Amino acid sequence: MEAFQLLSRGGVQFNKKKFKNDVSLFSQVQPKKPRTKTETASGHLPSELDFFRYSKSSTEKRQISDPREAGPRKRARIEDPQNEEQEGDEAETEGGQEHGERKATKQRVTAKGQNIPSPAESFFHLKERYNLPQYLMSNLEKYGFRRPTGIQSHGCPILMEARDLAAISPTGTGKTLSYLLPVFTALRAPSTSATVGAGRGTRAVILAPTRELAHQIYNECLKLAEGRKWRIVLFSKATAATLADKSVQEKVDIIISTPLRLVAAKRSGNIDLSNVRHLILDEADRMLDPEFLEQVQEITAACTHDDIQKAVFSATLPANAEKIAMGMLRNPVRIVVGLKDTPLPLIAQSLTYVADDASKLPTLLQYLSQPYNPPIVVFAATQPRATSLAEELVLHEVPNVDCLHAGMTNKEREDAVRRMQRGECWVLVSTEVMARGMDFKGVREVINYDFPRSVQSYVHRIGRTGRAGREGKAVTYFTNEDGPFLKAIANVILQSGSTVPEWMLKLPKPSKMKRKQMGKVKRADAVNPARSIGRRDAIKKRDMIAGSKRRKETAAAGVDVDSADED
DNA sequence: AAAAAAC
After folding, report:
1. In this structure, is the CB of residue A387 within 7 Å of any atom belonging to strand B?
2. Torsion of CA A385, A387, A390, A393, to 10 degrees
């Protein structure tokens, strides 16, 4: 592992020529026409592919052909009552409408519940209505938050009026800030201050499904907290230990944690949650998955204060998760920004046909040998596949490749995130662990190397790009085996305003049996069938690295050394 | 429907 990491970090030379059209990592992308289409790796389709029978009339359904048209077209859709999500007694508003000024990117907002607080047009309005402290206003300005996003203008008032909230808003639309602002406003002053209204100690808990996401939320907290002596704790083994001291715990204001970590502290009696007034579940549907649910419920039960406000946030919320969430909330407001379970139209999505698993690597290598827009996030289905793919890319001289999955050590994970944030990583190969919430601002493109297992997974994965109003590109590889899952994803792409070949939508709905069967197809750990991963160890890796050097030298002489790497 | 993630 060590050797591989060294190699992936520093062992590959920067190839300027390859990127001469893209010198600056963070410069504005030329708005390209988003195309959603089916590309074939080999240029022709094998006739035995049964689901391509439907492609005879492969005319494309066209909704929005250009992201710049998204505004007006979206508007047209809003006015079409047939497209409205039907709700019972609901208030419906569109941000900005009542003041005449509307940005093209504004999305439809559906709110449901009793006495729904009206949205705030600007941070200044929030301040006027809810007495937002000046330090928050300065910090907002300092960090470039000029206007609230849809979820912020609608969600903040609801939370600031002490209501429970279920909020659904697309990826990259500022959900974190929409719950942090109300939390800071409600807490008023740090525990250490003389004028604390609501008692001392932990008064807000924010839960997230991965360490990386918890850390990112923590960083956002620190931005808003500047200038005040807030004690914000990113829960870890180390911090949990220091909190065993009651006098330390009394000074804490906000805890951000993954569920199991907090449960462990609770069980050891090291944490007092009895004064928690705000409990936030980020990536709520994930947090309500069976494996997390018990832990979340244990934490909820430990938050015994009567005046507790609960809120759940996500870009996706399947019906069963929503049912559980609503059961946890008191007289909640439910708001949906845009369309539920739908990616942003800003993301140009495409599907690429690759015949089988073995064809994916050559397809990706071919793609990465041409100029592209780094950084790219590549999603693999399992940890071994992510590792294997990253190794293959490194061995094939792709520059600045990194790998990140939960099988790695904390330090390795932190290092990978840091390199990503610094723009040192151009291709990040990862698993589902990176799929949710992570905000790497420069990510231009997502590649689903392995087909996502659910619509939710797809939406969150591709949501790593196209954040905060930027454009993004998402490519999804699909093989013959992915056929049964293709239709659902095609529908999502269509929903989000991109185009999809009509035959995909005509695919038969796969039966449960069929899905079960297909789902059981075992994916090889090694991404390159020519290499066996079974006997991999440090020595083997050293050989591979040596092999890659040899390859480099012999490549010029036209000698094929690939076979030398085989077992 | 299943892997990944959580310690």
Report:
1. no
2. -70
Q: Would residue A98 count as lying in a domain?
A: no
Give the helix/strand (H/E) hosting A376: strand A376-379
Query: In the structure, how far is the CA atom of residue A401 from the C1' atom of nucleotide B6, in angstroms?
Result: 27
Q: Which of A516, A532, A555 is the last residue of a domain?
A: A516
Residue A253 Cβ < 7 Å to strand B: no
User: Beta carbon of A470 within 7 Å of strand B?
Assistant: no
Is residue A535 assigned to a domain? no
Q: Which of residues 39-68 of A touch strand B (CB under 7 A)?
A: none
CATH number reported for the structural domain that contains residue A147 in this entry = 3.40.50.300
Domain total for chain A? 2
- The two tokens of residue A374 are 């780094």
Provide the strand spans (E) within A62-177.
Answer: 90-94, 108-112, 165-168
Which residue's alpha carbon is at the shortest distance from the C1' of B6?
A: A260
Amino acid at A529: P
Of the candidates A118, A224, A235, the residue with the CA atom closest to the CA atom of residue A176: A224
Q: How far is the CA of A210 from the C1' of B6 (A)?
A: 7
Given a cut of 80, is residue A94 above it in pLDDT? Answer: no
In strand B, the nucleotides that come within 7 Å of a protein beta carbon are 1-7
pLDDT digits (tens, 9 = 90+) for A146-201: 999 999 999 999 999 999 999 999 999 999 999 999 999 999 888 877 665 557 78
* A 182-211 residues, CB < 7 A, strand B: 209-211
Average pLDDT, chain A: 78
Concatenated DSSP letters for A2-37? HHHHHHHHHSS---TGGGTT---TTSPPP-PPP---
pLDDT score recorded for residue A532: 57
| Domain region containing A247 | 109-337
User: Could you count the other beta carbons within 10 Å of the beta carbon of residue A192?
Assistant: 15
